[in-house]
Amino acid sequence: MFSSTFKTFASIVSTALLVSSAYAHEFTLGDIQIAHPYARATVAQQTSGGAYFGLENKGKQDDKLVKVSGTIAKSVEIHNMEMAGDVMKMREVDGIELKAGSKISMKPAGGYHIMLIGLTQPLKAGDKFPLTLQFEKAGKIEVVVHVEAASAAPMEHQH
């Protein structure tokens, strides 16, 4: 009985690890860790999208994400979304400061994100595409962005 229970448990754990490793992917450039780059799937005729990931500066020196580029869109920009009274405003920023020991989490609702303007193809769940991140001190790294199914209706915002 113990043997079959243990085998079942081991099978469940190994399946869970395989599934989670398919969704959790990280990249490291010096002291900078980039966690789980992803984008949401787009709908027909949608010409822009967003990409999101976590950033962690594990070093003792401040750094800054200064540029993101890729061929998935005509323009790739670093944006920040914030509330101004009852209106959500989004604007391009010149980078994201990464203080030593700090973490930043990009999410679809508020805060920083990567804006993909003039998509060269629809973003379909299950697809992947590369983006190149340029840091002021750490340098450049290419990351793979996984396209996930859109889980919520797109939010309206103003530029």
Automatic annotation (TrEMBL):
Entries under SUPFAM superfamilies matching the protein: DR1885-like metal-binding protein (SSF110087)
Presence of the UniProt keyword Signal in the record: yes
Keywords, in A-Z order: Signal
Signal peptide: 1-24
Pfam families named among the record's database cross-references: PCuAC (PF04314)
Superkingdom of the source species: Bacteria
InterPro entries registered for this protein in UniProt: LpqE-like, Lxx211020-like, PCuAC_sf
Annotated protein name in UniProt: Copper chaperone PCu(A)C
